Amino acid sequence: MGFFDKGHEKESPIGNLRAHIGTFMYFVKVGKSKFKHKGKVGEIFADMDNTQYLFQQATSGTMYDMKKKLDYTLWDAATHKYTEDIQKLKDELLKAVDEGEESGEFAEEKKEKEIEAEKEEEEPGSWKAHIKGQMEEAEEKARKEAEEKEKEMETPAVETEEESLTEEDCRELWRIIQGLEREYKEMNSIADDWFSVHGKKTGCMAALAAMTLLPLGAVYGLYHLL
């Protein structure tokens, strides 16, 4: 069993915190799977998934009671990291929306969907026109495929580029970001309440672990100061 245990959400503040972290990481994993081949966005989600150990270590409890410890240094490092990651996702979303609007790509997608909807709403009496329309579409599709095949034969093969975000991708990314922010707000609220009661205690191991997040040069400098 992992440390994200939804069944024990109400047993303690730390248990409740772990449950919200679990939901937060669920959104991360959905994003990682959904945007695996979507360039920078996929990379951000993969990095967020790979660094979940910060939350695990911050809420690992003590050897005497797994429900009664939250490490401030590690928690601060985790929230700092994920605050930046969420902002990076927002930046990529805004960039994709701006690029989609400028290129007219989103408008074309919307137009295609509207045309398909109109075709589905055609009256039964227009069956002749419907058949003729489908025949024309088939001919046009065959012509385009032939042109593309001819171009492929003339153009040397290149590596497949990362896929850009479509309008549907942008909407899905926004839903995921909203879910992340909702859980993130709850997590920080619980942690703030905990620290207001128990104080911001840290340990040597926590400080050492947090140092691993620093740039190598900074760690090297600290080593010589010690």
Question: What would you note in describing this structure?
Answer:
The chain contains 9 helices and no strands. The protein has 226 residues and is mostly helical. Helix content is 73%, strand content 0%. The longest helix is centred in the middle third of the chain and has 32 residues, at 72-103.
Concise summary:
With 226 residues, the chain is mainly α.
Keywords:
mainly alpha, elongated, single chain, disordered N terminus, 226 residues, 73% helix, disordered C terminus
User: Would you identify the regions where 5 or more consecutive residues have pLDDT less than 50?
Assistant: 1-6, 214-226
Outline type: elongated
Report strand %.
Answer: under 5%
Task: Give the integer mean of the pLDDT values.
Answer: 76
Largest β-sheet summary: none
Structural class by SSE content: mainly alpha
The tally of beta strands, per DSSP, is: 0
Radius of gyration over all CA atoms, rounded: 26 Å
Question: Would you list the SSEs in sequence order as H and E?
Answer: HHHHHHHHH
Alpha carbon gap, first and last residue: 40 Å
Helices, by number, come to: 9
Helix content range: over 70%
Topology of helices and strands:
Layout: H1 13-34, H2 40-50, H3 53-58, H4 72-103, H5 105-120, H6 127-154, H7 167-198, H8 204-211, H9 216-225
Helix pairs in contact: 1-2, 1-7, 2-4, 4-7, 4-8
